[in-house]
Fold each of these.
Amino acid sequence: MKFSFELLKTDKTGARLGRMSTPHGEFATPVFMPVGTKAAVKAVSPEELEAAGAGIILANTYHLYLRPGHELIRDLGGLHSFMHWAGPILTDSGGFQVFSLGKLRQLDETGVSFRSHLDGAKCTLTPESAIEVQEALGADIIMPLDECTPYPAEREYAVNSMNLTHRWALRCKKAKKDNGQALFGIVQGGMYEDLRRESAKAVTEIGFDGYALGGLSVGEEKPLMYGIIARSAPLLPAASPRYLMGVGTPEDLVYAVEHGIDMFDCVMPTRNARNGTLFTRSGKLVIKNGQYEKDSRPVEDGCGCYTCGNYSRAYLRHLYMSGEMLGSRLNTIHNLFYYAALMRQMQRAIKEDAFAQFKRGFYSGLERP
Amino acid sequence: MKFSFELLKTDKTGARLGRMSTPHGEFATPVFMPVGTKAAVKAVSPEELEAAGAGIILANTYHLYLRPGHELIRDLGGLHSFMHWAGPILTDSGGFQVFSLGKLRQLDETGVSFRSHLDGAKCTLTPESAIEVQEALGADIIMPLDECTPYPAEREYAVNSMNLTHRWALRCKKAKKDNGQALFGIVQGGMYEDLRRESAKAVTEIGFDGYALGGLSVGEEKPLMYGIIARSAPLLPAASPRYLMGVGTPEDLVYAVEHGIDMFDCVMPTRNARNGTLFTRSGKLVIKNGQYEKDSRPVEDGCGCYTCGNYSRAYLRHLYMSGEMLGSRLNTIHNLFYYAALMRQMQRAIKEDAFAQFKRGFYSGLERP
């Protein structure tokens, strides 16, 4: 199967229902991608991911490049085979991780040099090598190397950073083989709306299989992020998928879907699960709280996940307090199911042109005690 | 179903094939019980335990008494329901764990006082309360409180310790309700063969549903342990199940089965798994070793476990090196499958009166590079 995206429906709010096809299967959008940084979504198996409703997962170029190495993964048949996940995969380019290294990295026109967080070894990624690494990994959707503009950033910095990202995007597109992998473009521009507009235009002109908003959820206030999302998404081609990188909470997802975003990734459901925070229709449930000590109910009544079907809050609390890794796993299964169910509910609402109504129900649910 | 044990066959070596029935199901012996100390076999789900061939699991009275508390578990429907394991469970009495506390415990005729390893709170267990706790937990097979005689121990200490264990055993039997739970007796006597003989006689005279050898694998040399096993097992009633507590390696199991032991528990397959040590027909495989870096083979060719069916040594090594908990889980699945398969092989060999032949094959397998 080749990569394709079909926009099936746009709700009157602007929320979009779509269908994405990739060499490893298709899925409906809006979609949430669980994060499998090191070729494993922490604590869960591929079968559990599938049962939790994950249609596509994300893996991390930066981490896999450092360990075990992209050539090793390629020689073992590629990322899908290596991690026993037969469905679609997106790899990010490593831009965000390199950005996170702060002073450990040096950036110039050619690319980025950095010290491995594992052993301090000097490494480099160029736009060309980032593509090469991702071609070796063999994900269905790959991302160009970009500079994730930090926040706050002076306008001059944001301009230069954005322009570098554009030049790199062009180099990535040129370097990429015609091998069936989809390549998305990344819009930067910091928190400057005019730069976001300029970036959307530049990246669209280069032309990609999909478009991502990068450089958000990097420390800015929510209203600022929401403003950028609301005003950037409509600048992207309606016929192409729109991916909001690294975001976010259930509320963020509902907001962004309403404003026309189709794809998301975030460590929140998986990381929070390991910290004992569970998502429910009525908000977060912190499993270590004493109130759940003898609570025989599932995390969420009516939830269809394996965890809620078989375990009580009291047991999950016990596992958490006892440091049993089974707890991380059961919590992760629930949170990923919650995120996938939320996306399915949004898909249905869009189909029925009832997104505004869905949103009201979503927020009134959160207000319940 | 009530508790019962049927001795189906004794091989010419002395190895025994049996069938045990419990209120939560039946299983063939010799059997290995995976250890679920805190109401969870570390890193795996009940479904995975079942798929790995576990017929009965062990949980820990001491740990569950301290956290989350036996009354909580009773109020939530008992241990089976709490941990979502529908099969047979054996709970040990806490004797061994209290023994492990060393100077943190005080022993007298009434019972044992100790400081909780969790919060330092003062706790006591008496023979009667150990039974009460285990009745609240609701395991299929429960154990009396005993003193696990340390090694080395002066003869006088071993005599007194053994006699205390006998008096406690009687109190446990008297305290126990007629509720369908089976109660086993524990033979102590340190490394003194005559005391072991005396203990076997005393415990048998009290009369239990099964008999355990306690106080082994506590630091003594293997030949010493093997001698005690070989000479103690035949002293126990042939018609009752014989349980060797806390042992051991695959070699230990093969040795003890040959000498008439029916049941085992040990943290070895699960703990070693988390440390990256995998059991195979040809010995231990240490997954972090560099030789497995690019090894596309499963842990063991022909192994029927989920891990070997879907993942390479290279991937398991990557998970181990990356600290991904999925690695602990996949390794645990393999090791438990290996142990269960070993028990099945022994059962088959006994059935065919071919245990000696099985043993030769087992050891020649270990010698293979």
Amino acid sequence: MSNGSIEAASADEIAKEFKEHSVAEFFKKNMQMLGLTGKIKALTTIVHEYVTNSLDACEEAKILPDIEVQIKELGSEYYEVTVKDNGPGLTKETVGKALGQLLAGTKFHRMMQMRGQQGIGAAGCTMLSQITTGKASQVITGTGKGNPISLEITIDPKKNQPKIANLAEIKKNFKGTMIKAKFKGMKYVNSEQAPLEYLRRTAIANPHAQITLIEPNKKKIVFKRTLKDIPKQPLEIKPHPKGINVDELNTLAKYTTGRQVSSFLKSEFDRMGDKAISEIQKNVSFDLKKDPRQLTWEECEEIVKQFKKINFIAPRTDGLRPIGEERIRKSLNSIVQPEFLSVVTRRASVYSGGFPFQVEVGIAYGGNAGKGNNVVNDDGLVERKMEIMRFANRAPLLFDTGGCAITKAVQSIDWKRYGVRDFENAPITIFANLISVHIPYTSAGKQAISDEIEIMEELRLALMDSGRRAAQYIAGKKREQDKKMKKELFFKFIPEIAKALEEITKKGKGKIEKNLEHLVLEKLKLEEDEEEAQKISDEIKETSKDTGKKTKENSPNEDEGLMEEVVEEGEE
Amino acid sequence: MSNGSIEAASADEIAKEFKEHSVAEFFKKNMQMLGLTGKIKALTTIVHEYVTNSLDACEEAKILPDIEVQIKELGSEYYEVTVKDNGPGLTKETVGKALGQLLAGTKFHRMMQMRGQQGIGAAGCTMLSQITTGKASQVITGTGKGNPISLEITIDPKKNQPKIANLAEIKKNFKGTMIKAKFKGMKYVNSEQAPLEYLRRTAIANPHAQITLIEPNKKKIVFKRTLKDIPKQPLEIKPHPKGINVDELNTLAKYTTGRQVSSFLKSEFDRMGDKAISEIQKNVSFDLKKDPRQLTWEECEEIVKQFKKINFIAPRTDGLRPIGEERIRKSLNSIVQPEFLSVVTRRASVYSGGFPFQVEVGIAYGGNAGKGNNVVNDDGLVERKMEIMRFANRAPLLFDTGGCAITKAVQSIDWKRYGVRDFENAPITIFANLISVHIPYTSAGKQAISDEIEIMEELRLALMDSGRRAAQYIAGKKREQDKKMKKELFFKFIPEIAKALEEITKKGKGKIEKNLEHLVLEKLKLEEDEEEAQKISDEIKETSKDTGKKTKENSPNEDEGLMEEVVEEGEE
């Protein structure tokens, strides 16, 4: 490393500095992009990466997940994290790619709703362990066939390749995967962004999983399985013609086994049937019997233009697996215990790239909704603040709150219209789960969802729909409270005012007080309350117009009716 | 692509799905991580990537930048972006890496304050162009030696390798680089997050650059160079011993040319002299004459432990190039025209990883500070809202506001303590520039800075320091306004109240009014004002204590005194 030169550099001199770097080196220098910096955040992210891998593996293998997380304190800011699952296990060949190579894995290229999707997370943890402690991560994994294996794994960052050591068979009965890794520069606490809260929220969104946490102080916390049926497995799906771009079509065409463009389109795309094909044929300048490998960019453009015009049926929703209205209702009622709860599951939609997604929203009001801030108000009640619980494919999102589409959608709503005057300080918990075959995260750290237009729109519609239902309840409650508060306030000051007026006017205090009470009760209270009621009622009416279309309530997983004209039935 | 199976998958079956992917494929699927999604955002990011490359190249070659950006509308949501600079140019060998390969370039491995630092941005634009239009990006570049060359470039995403076509020499005199690329799915608007505002802010932070924008409607906007001296070039620096971790030390030791650990440490680290070496030797279990390539992880740990203990002099600041208090003051005064302006440049500090950084903050209050929201208030004045202008190494940050350390630092301040009661709606512009040899961005899109503890602390100290100075001004102004408003308010209602009291008390209205006026002027006004003044004064005193240490005002680029005990002088 030179000490730097202050001479002006020529193109040739600058050229000497050109170097190439591996993706592992890039993320090693930018651990913050993986959510692996910050003493508390890093520890939560580690737990998140291992646990989501376990849940995904169990789901794919149709196993009811039983996951144990143990965090041991080895020294100051020095911890060992062990995550053990009862999943399908890893083979000798796959363990290196799963834990010792970035951008390798099963998830990146599949159109399937999974928690992980990048093939970066767990390998990033392996790297973090080795750069903070110099130690390898230990793995024991058994697939049910043959003996389980144990091994130690690190990454060579310059090559982005796994290094496996001490590979051995062990003579025990074990099916599943156990990862044990050490990390320095961490801190285990009990806060809103810490492992315990992360696992609590994971349990809320995954009632079929049994999750155990053993804390550094040996305390064992078990989130019991409350539902014994394995959720239907998400399906790997084909891209929907809406939202596919020319480059993607062009790339798919080069690798297809179809002999004609028409059969290529039918086999590679969701909702593509004979009617659509003949509609396309009518409007493009070439014969769809053509070899797809011979398609030019311009011809692909013609096809995509037709994709945009045709009213295809909405994307398959049977590939997506929402948590479901009833399960969310049950979870929130049992954990948040609100006075009022409104849950909306929207139907599936699609965002650019042809990725289907779906939004589930719950608004819980009153009771224990919102988060307590340990401040006691004048009425002796603990003040509560609005809380947003964000999930992506059922995995909780705890960080980068401000940058997330869910937060932005919540903030974009004018909550006053729904009768919530001071939204930030209202006893409200907003639950939102976005599911998709590909969540557009803002960063490789998967902490926040990018604000794609279509996703924002669906989130807003769900929030407004849910908000409308809550508004009726809130408005009534608010009116009652206001009436009470106003009366109390005025009556509290009447004696003082009367006393002051007595001085000014030299009239008797008793008479003044009576007159004031009359004034308050008759004039202020009645008139203002009527006005207020009218205003809220007007606002609710106006908001209903706002959403643009009438959304059918309580209708998750229904296929019909998203597009106004369905010209094409897709085949299964 | 299969239609998905709902059979349970075994480890072997899952193993078949394991694949490896290139970093180009990863970002191609996750363009949002590069800031290259969203019609407006993508266009601004494209301009950002090309312009920062131009500014960096000019800076390194000691050239006063003259940059022309032209955006042409080719069709609906279809644009051509051309960026031409007068920089040092690219050679045949480097142009492919600079524009056609991700994670290649001069910036990633150098400890040097540059706008770009990843080797991803411009190559990401090449990829975006080809996947939205199918077209290559055109480049003309001349280095001053021989004829300029022209060529077309695309990326092979599967290999992350450049593909160059139509390479030719051209017989014109041209030194610099011109890139012309086409993009679909964009929208040129004139908003706070659009190219024009981006370039305006770039001009604020780079007064030595001449920047021209030709808008799609052919309108030409020139941000003139206001300062003709080239800013001192940032130096490539060595890592500071504070903040280096064991892994980094271990890696450096493996590649050093030093023969002994002692000479290795002295040549590879900033501020490392003989005194520090002998201090380390006293406290480690091995001889520093040892071959550095033979250092074990545990020995590296011993050394890093000593690094933490020794009070090294603060990192070299001559590698960092703040904009400077006077330049910021001039820029903000000319553009924001505030009533009051307070600018603070903190001294350099270091965050984990051994990266020096420095913070510059300006608070502009009143006048045209803040952003207008087109709402006219009761006094007939346009209401203004608080505005944050964020910069990293002089490049404006327009997106992911909520997730950025600068925003978080601003929000963490209790502005009431500085006399600003309703911060969000105050006429305030907060300017903040973070400079560093490595900005810890939250994502490869470089839109927001990660909230590293040390950076947050410095930002907070700068904001508080700057805020304290503004507070005096604001408090005085506030008191005056409050007095005026209160008086006006009370006097407005006195006739009405007097009338009401006349009814209640049956006394003469004239006398009541006089009594009320007396009451307002004497009791309310005087007492409350005194109380208020006392309160603000107390708060300011308390806040001063808050910052923990007395910061010297107006002292950018001074080396002395950051550490209490300096046991070691670094050598140049």
Amino acid sequence: MDCGSSGQAKNGVSAAVISVGDELMLGQTQDTNAKWLAGQFTLRGVLVREFRTVHDDLEAIESVLRELSARHDFLVMTGGLGPTDDDLTREALRRAMDVVEPLEVDAPALAALDMWFKDRGRPMTANNSLQALRPKGARCLENSLGTAPGLYAHIGRAHIWCLPGPPREMECMFETQVAPHLPHCVMATAAVHSFGQGESFLAQVLGQRMSRQSNPLIGTTASGSIVSARIRAVDAAANPQSMESVMQEIERLWAPYAFGRDQETLAGALGKLLVSRGERVSLAESCTGGLAGSFITAISGSSEWFSGAAVTYANGAKTDLLQVPNELLAAHGAVSAPVALAMARGCAALLKTQWSASITGIAGPGGGSETKPVGQVFIGICGPRFETVKKFHYPGDRASIRDRAAKSALALLRFALLGQEAFAAPMIWESK
Amino acid sequence: MDCGSSGQAKNGVSAAVISVGDELMLGQTQDTNAKWLAGQFTLRGVLVREFRTVHDDLEAIESVLRELSARHDFLVMTGGLGPTDDDLTREALRRAMDVVEPLEVDAPALAALDMWFKDRGRPMTANNSLQALRPKGARCLENSLGTAPGLYAHIGRAHIWCLPGPPREMECMFETQVAPHLPHCVMATAAVHSFGQGESFLAQVLGQRMSRQSNPLIGTTASGSIVSARIRAVDAAANPQSMESVMQEIERLWAPYAFGRDQETLAGALGKLLVSRGERVSLAESCTGGLAGSFITAISGSSEWFSGAAVTYANGAKTDLLQVPNELLAAHGAVSAPVALAMARGCAALLKTQWSASITGIAGPGGGSETKPVGQVFIGICGPRFETVKKFHYPGDRASIRDRAAKSALALLRFALLGQEAFAAPMIWESK
């Protein structure tokens, strides 16, 4: 199995993923199966060329099975295997296979269903027993987590797996009963994540390295203000160094904004730095109201380097908890550089940490003024021989202002730990 | 425009939704745009017959535009409008439109881009200016939240809108510049949200009201432990009362778990109760690390009823900030009913609020033991003449344990404000 730099399988091995369900097409339910399955195929060097979603409609399901089995090697269809009238995958598969006999009972599947209900002390309904039906020539796949067996069949050269819709059942069945029949993993994928600059600036920095003809192939994506370089290499096993060297080059070009790889988060990167120095951090949050703390504590083991946060939403809380002088609040307002600095200082003292960051700003939509518009946020950083405030102006709505402010505080702490040069690097939302 | 209760468009007006991006097809990014768009079309009685997802590949995008424009009235394509080389939607649209001239600059779009960068004091790169290109005969759509203009064109009878991939930009552009050209909403939809019981229990409570033959049609969905009844009525304008009475009935049947409708959140429902009584709340968070506070402060105006939170992740913080006695911590451990109660009491005193909730538990994956397993969480509630602790055992991973614990704290505060009877209602994860 081998693919070209654009991700196209050279030998033409390809897959398609089909999701079945009215609830998907009416916009009621988010399909997450297609993404998960695509990731599994990608890892194995098999390109998913098409995602399709169809209604609970016999003709639509039959037709998509016929169409896609004519041009792909692997089809995985999820959904439509339940016990109710709108579960049509079994019958549609029979028709697409040109099997004239009606669906037949799969004895082992029926026995397994029977056992499933016995184990739970519940009666098996007639509807449930329909789930043990399959087209002649197809095979039932055991479902260890639910009642719907899967189905395997082939039409022409296409291998077809029909899996249950619930993600846990689908993933388990794929791993145990589909993956062993697929090519081994050959595609290496990796990501380098950054925060603090825009996608177009960061893409420009990469320049020709993003050419569509390269191998590894580099692309950028942005999600929640995290801009990531996604790297995809074929034959990475033959040349594992190249993937690593590409990542290092991106990290160098994107310094200090690049903070981690793959599953790493901004908070995790901060934690690593703190742990390596044996130092701890605390937070003083106003407009973010605990969001930065929730990012940190999402990481298992963060108690090693995070002591806590003072969420001082009301002015009184800033005074009572953080010893911010009333006069400072009166003179400058809660959203100001002096108050941000006093919050960070007070927080480090209160929670007895070497480092502390404070966040105070106007998240909107109300509360803005000409001199302090919605989106204006001050972030204070205190550390050993280090004390400063940066001013930001974030665009967007309340949720994105808060998200960016919380992430900026973590990024600034990381910059401060890296040293003066990193801290001097401008962030895209900084304002004078 | 009119639809049957199954959502099928009687007159055959149909739509297709296309998502563009390698990151989607490689399984790196979850597409949420297709679901959102499908929901919008459904509201307007337009059936989305196909979802397609394609690679950043010129031929693939061109071909899907040609194929789907031949059989649908409305196409919405998202993604591929960015400033980089792998953004191919503009060029693919030109080809699918059979326009021979190269892409041309749209002067107003270029001016808007220029202004966008000027406003932010940032230089516009050459890449960015590519975003103002469009095929001859197409129209640029203003993007008030980002740099990528959208595109409108038609091929044959099909109206085609190309919208940016970032969901906020896409949704805003759809609402302001696509929706006005679609049929009016004919389908009334509403939701009643609940927290604290499982979907199968709550569906059983609704019983025959959920029959697929009803109008309004009632279905249940679950997302992030919020179980919602989704109500869909055709011709609701003709009989607006029925929708309201259905919602009231569900709220009655689901009391006290039902907390709000449509866009309402658990924190918002809590805030309404507090505001009506002129009371305030504070939080003492350990394992949730600020998550409950972030839910509250996500709501604009929450400063009216929320004073702040003490995120006491380290034991020292529990002692220093909340005056939890060291002896109590030593005798019972931080995850215990006495410590939860002491945290809530200390928090109400520290932040001078009538009400306070505390959360302390084991979010995992490490740190569990036989007597205190991962998922064990104590939530303490203090209020006027009210003091109690409930013990929970949440299933799932770290993220879902934290999410459920933070929401449970808000739900318990709401129950406590509603009175003893509501507070006595069992939650599904409560343990003895």
